């Protein structure tokens, strides 16, 4: 997928979200069944704005009115997925506490969420910054530029640099691939492909369902997406470079996933997910192409 949709002014890639008040989205999700008060999305232009009071009030409103818009939850999960991949953890999403959303040439979300560690049954808060855009009706890109444990003090000069596509492995650059060839698992390039076993599908179902949901999000409204769950995973083939052992392909930093699944209402779906990174902490790109 091209880089055109990610072109922005230089300041767009380095400004901390809370300092970009003029770009903050001043709209509530009107279609939501939860009518959270306006001040939960207020455009904060006052020079002496009390951010701590704002976030405390927003957190209380989100809890009181049943949570944020479903797309905030979706991209919060994307950020948590990035954190788990890069830190070797298996934190489970619980809820969103705070978020800032704004629109330039793309959508950006700075999200604070709570996650649980199933091993110690303890919880923590994660901060993540995720950008997404749909270049056309078939393809969506979601790029995480920050995922970390919540800091105790606000980092006013935090910098969220764009993902550097020049640092991505050349094997995974260019336009999104077409569906895999019929002889992918037996042909001359068979060492690049690995079909996930049923046991592995169950073990990794959390993020696999996230990938399927992200693919459908490129076709459906976020609220409509909820009615398609849960998904039934049918077949998943992973493609990497030949020098990656089969057992490591699923967790490779750069990989292409060919996913066939069925929605709760019986709709068969296929999607391609290309996962890449530029090697920088907190950076992850998920490019999505969905076929219904």
From TrEMBL:
<protein>
    <submittedName>
        <fullName>Protein MS5</fullName>
    </submittedName>
</protein>
<dbReference type="InterPro" id="IPR006462">
    <property type="entry name" value="MS5"/>
</dbReference>
<dbReference type="Pfam" id="PF04776">
    <property type="entry name" value="protein_MS5"/>
</dbReference>
<feature type="region of interest" description="Disordered">
    <location>
        <begin position="1"/>
        <end position="39"/>
    </location>
</feature>
<feature type="compositionally biased region" description="Basic and acidic residues">
    <location>
        <begin position="8"/>
        <end position="29"/>
    </location>
</feature>
């Amino acid at each position: 997928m091209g880089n055109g949709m990610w072109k922005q002014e230089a300041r767009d890639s380095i400004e901390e979200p809370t300092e970009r008040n003029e770009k903050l989205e001043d709209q509530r999700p009107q279609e939501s069944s939860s009518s959270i008060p306006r001040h939960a999305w207020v455009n904060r232009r006052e020079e002496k704005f009390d951010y701590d009071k704002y976030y405390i009030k927003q957190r209380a409103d989100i809890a009181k009115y049943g949570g944020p818009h479903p797309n905030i939850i979706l991209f919060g999960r994307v950020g948590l997925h990035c954190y788990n991949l890069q830190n070797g953890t298996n934190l489970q999403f619980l809820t969103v506490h705070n978020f800032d959303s704004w629109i330039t040439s793309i959508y950006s979300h700075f999200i604070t969420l709570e996650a649980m560690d199933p091993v110690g049954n303890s919880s923590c808060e994660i901060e993540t910054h995720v950008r997404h855009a749909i270049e056309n009706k078939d393809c969506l890109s979601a790029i995480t530029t920050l995922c970390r444990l919540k800091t105790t003090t606000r980092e006013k000069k935090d910098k969220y640099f764009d993902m550097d596509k020049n640092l991505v492995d050349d094997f995974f650059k260019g336009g999104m691939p077409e569906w895999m060839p019929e002889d992918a698992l037996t042909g001359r390039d068979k060492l690049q492909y690995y079909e996930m076993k049923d046991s592995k599908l169950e073990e990794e179902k959390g993020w696999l369902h996230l990938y399927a949901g992200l693919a459908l999000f490129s076709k459906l409204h976020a609220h409509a997406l909820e009615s398609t769950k849960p998904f039934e995973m049918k077949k998943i083939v992973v493609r990497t470079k030949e020098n990656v052992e089969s057992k490591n392909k699923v967790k490779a930093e750069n990989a292409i996933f060919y996913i066939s699944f069925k929605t709760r209402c019986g709709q068969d779906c296929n999607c391609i997910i290309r996962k890449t990174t530029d090697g920088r902490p907190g950076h992850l790109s998920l490019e999505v192409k969905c076929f219904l």
